Amino acid sequence: MTRVLLLGGTGDALAIARILPAGHVYSLAGLGRVPDELSCAVRAGGFGGIGGLARYLHDEKIALVVDATHPYAAQMSRHAREACALADVPLWAVRRPAWQPQAGDDWREASDWGEIVERVAPFRRPLFTLGREALHHLHEIPASQHWTIRCLDAHPGNERASIVDARGPFDLDGERALFDAAGIDVVVSKNSGGRATEAKLAVARERGLAVVMLARPALPAADRIFDDAASARDALQHWLTQQ
């Protein structure tokens, strides 16, 4: 059997995984909810680096890898590129276009956590939407600030941090309610692209709030690159019928 390995963990990846029949593999890093409604196999956990992934591709007779990981999962994308080259397996990738600033936006780019801290220093009530990164710094919150941190999993906060466990998509009304309840005066975000989490940027724009935007990492080349899940899904459906 000609097998596909789909590297996922995003909404785009899940949309693609839904068309994979039994025998193909949807791989997750082991974080978040493991879907149970799919026909394909679901694999959670790492591969053991580039060499481990290359061996997996060989041993499992994988004929195509589709990288639909998060735009900030750059290490996984690099490992996939190098492992596919070692195993002589083609690599397709979904590369969601980055958001672009619009009229009225006040974006302030940061390249790492240190620069994020510098950019939010003048504000009192930041909203962090970086996943788990801010959770590692709860003990560093200045006395002048209270952080609201939104991530996938519940986590205890402290006297200067509130944790919101929620999964997108998020709409305008819900984001407005969160901004009001938490008194948000600045948003900290990855430039993830897509529509699922874009509403926070629209609310920041309409309220004249700054957005500290974490710069996107450089991602490796692939044999085919798709802008969205729909085009990747259609191409994969066609590829499967040709095997």
From TrEMBL:
GO BP: any one term: cobalamin biosynthetic process
Pathway entry: Cofactor biosynthesis; adenosylcobalamin biosynthesis
Database matches in InterPro entries: Precorrin-6x_reduct
Keyword Oxidoreductase in annotation: yes
Annotated GO MF terms: precorrin-6A reductase activity
Keywords: Cobalamin biosynthesis, Oxidoreductase
Pfam family, one: CbiJ
Keyword presence, Oxidoreductase: yes
PANTHER family membership: COBALT-PRECORRIN-6A REDUCTASE
NCBIfam families (alphabetical): PRK08057.1-2, PRK08057.1-3
Protein name as annotated: Cobalt-precorrin-6x reductase
